[in-house]
Amino acid sequence: MFYLKFATISNVKISAVIITYNEEDKIAGAIESVSWADEIIIVDSESSDRTREIAESLGAKASIQKWLGFSGQKQFAVDSAQNDWIFSLDADERISDELKQEILRIKHLPENEIADGYRISRLTYYMNRPIRHSGWYPDWQLRFFNRKKGVWSDALIHESVQMRENSRIEKLKADILHYSVENAAYHHRMIGERYAPLAAAQMFERGRKTSVLRIASAGFIVFFRTYFLKAGFLDGFAGFCIARFAAHHAFLKYLSLWEMQNKVKKRK
């Protein structure tokens, strides 16, 4: 007697989760790009604008959570979802049509053909053009995953999903589209108010130290690496600006770390 084995066809249910704070100008685009999801969850850190109102008008489930840090806030959003399969998106990101089709195809694959998580390239637009060099692309992000197999790492900055050992991770072909930097003033402000201080604090927590020589040379080294070694010059004037801001970030990051070191020395 012969027995036929049929692969179990999955019907993956996906929760799209987005954390927000005063994103009334961007949240609609983000939500519309994941309108195919079975559920859209917005976790808002006490916005003073119309972010939640807009989100709810588009069918998203919006809740308020006091800021827990990037990792904590994103994990709270994951835990708030009804479904185990999560697509984590930032308010300044969009799902490309090609990526949407890839994900919809995965939803209906046999269970044994579905990985535990998927890395997705992120294409950032800067100064009205896609940036494909300067170290900004492909910028792989693990954003589509089974929450039974992964959690957001506990990091102050550059948080990422950490999958359990032996989890099966694959890559998708299409991009997340990223519209993060509104203008030069915004870029400068984000470096000074968020990225450099958080990066310095993270290095300090991990026992990293710096010196005056490192502070003095950091900007030049990063500019050279970004503009020449990572082919930023191929991104035109935008590539030059990216390299220049990267140099400023490196200088400010190490200077902030040096200040933290000296505060500790004075206390001793």
Q: What can you see in these coordinates?
A:
The chain has two domains: 14-116 and 143-162, Spore Coat Polysaccharide Biosynthesis Protein SpsA, Chain A (Alpha-Beta Complex); 184-267, no CATH class. The protein is of the alpha/beta class and 268 residues long. The chain is globular. Helix content is 40%, strand content 23%. The longest helix has 32 residues, at 236-267. Strands 1, 2, 3, 4, 5, 6, 7, 8 and 11 form a nine-stranded mixed beta sheet that branches.
Q: What is the number of strand segments?
A: 11
Structural class, by secondary structure, is alpha/beta
Helix content estimate: 40-55%
Provide the CATH architecture of the largest domain. Answer: Alpha-Beta Complex
CATH fold category name of the largest domain: Spore Coat Polysaccharide Biosynthesis Protein SpsA, Chain A
Low-confidence stretches: 1-6
Strand content: 15-25%
The 3D shape can be described as globular
Distance between the termini: 82 Å
Task: Please name the fourth-level CATH homologous superfamily of the largest domain.
Answer: Spore Coat Polysaccharide Biosynthesis Protein SpsA, Chain A
How would a crystallographer describe the biggest sheet?
Answer: 9 strands, mixed
Overall pLDDT, averaged? 94
**SSE arrangement, N to C:** EHEHEHEEHEEEEEEHHH
Brief description of this entry?
With 268 residues, the chain is α/β, with parallel strands linked by helices. It is 40% helix and 23% strand. It has 7 helices and 11 strands.
